[in-house]
Design a protein that fits this description.
This protein has a 7-stranded mixed sheet, sandwiched between helices. The protein has a single domain, classed as Rossmann fold (3-Layer(aba) Sandwich). It is built from 9 helices and 7 strands. By secondary structure, the protein is of the alpha/beta class.
Length: 247
């Protein structure tokens, strides 16, 4: 196999999931999401669906009340990874990965996950409005979205846009749309550092293995820019909130 074959696969290779989230924090969120036997779980913007797979397993997949899940994303490689993970855990009969736009999905579910994908709906408010139509009555939504820990710098706004709000604004956006906040927690600094490090790690390792590859200089520049932006501009400034919502 040629060295160039490894670059695409290295992009998310060291990431558990594409969000700042520890194992312990994920377990807490799944408990608060409270997936019941026989529930239907939907993950919009699922990536490779690691949290979706865990949610389905938490609900139970044996007997007549087996939990089932659907993950929706536009990244074919991520969906393929999700299918491999599902097969490896004997969940392929219970979880389907579908290529599609998150905002176009209309089939409702009992438990819905949407983490870091508000942009696919046109922003936080539009996402919270749209997601209300796919959460069944009595269901729950796990919504993950960015917020500012403190007033942003112009450099941070240039990267992330001017629509990101403070945590209070994010909570208010949910409340004014009829959602009740059943749980609120935020990513801590270690979770953020691990997220940013693992986002870089696969390609950092590729660079060390194939320093003479024709694309090495371009990849090195991209990774250096991302690390510089994180350390200099938004580390400790950009937050990620996880809200378990009901209505």
């Amino acid at each position: 196999m040629q060295p160039t074959d490894h670059l695409a696969a290295s992009r998310y290779a060291r990431m558990r999931w594409n969000t700042p989230l520890s194992e312990e924090h994920a377990a807490l969120l799944l408990r608060r999401l409270d997936v019941r036997p026989g529930a239907r779980v939907l993950d919009l913007g699922c990536g490779w669906g690691e949290l979706l797979l865990r949610a389905v397993a938490a609900g139970g997949v044996s007997g007549p009340l087996a939990t089932r899940g659907v993950g929706v994303d536009t990244d074919d490689a991520a969906l393929a990874r999700g299918r491999r993970l599902a097969t490896g855990r004997s969940l392929n009969r219970h979880v389907a990965f579908v290529m599609g736009e998150a905002a176009a999905w209309q089939e409702p579910a009992d438990r819905v996950l949407c983490i870091g994908s508000a942009h696919a709906f046109g922003g936080t408010g539009a996402a919270l409005d749209a997601l209300a139509t796919v959460v069944r009555p009595g269901g729950r939504l796990l919504f993950g979205d960015a917020y500012w820990e403190r007033p942003p710098t112009p450099q941070a706004e240039q990267i992330f846009g001017t629509e990101v709000t403070a945590l209070a604004g994010l909570v208010e956006a949910a409340r004014e749309r009829g959602w009740r906040v059943l749980h609120l927690s935020t990513a801590d600094q270690r979770e953020w550092d691990d997220f940013e490090s693992t986002w870089l790690a696969g390609r950092q390792e590729w660079l060390l293995t194939y320093p003479e590859d024709p694309r090495a200089a371009e990849v090195r520049a991209e990774l250096d820019d991302r690390l510089r932006q994180y350390v200099d501009t938004y580390r400790g400034l950009l937050g990620l909130a996880y809200l378990v919502l009901g209505r």
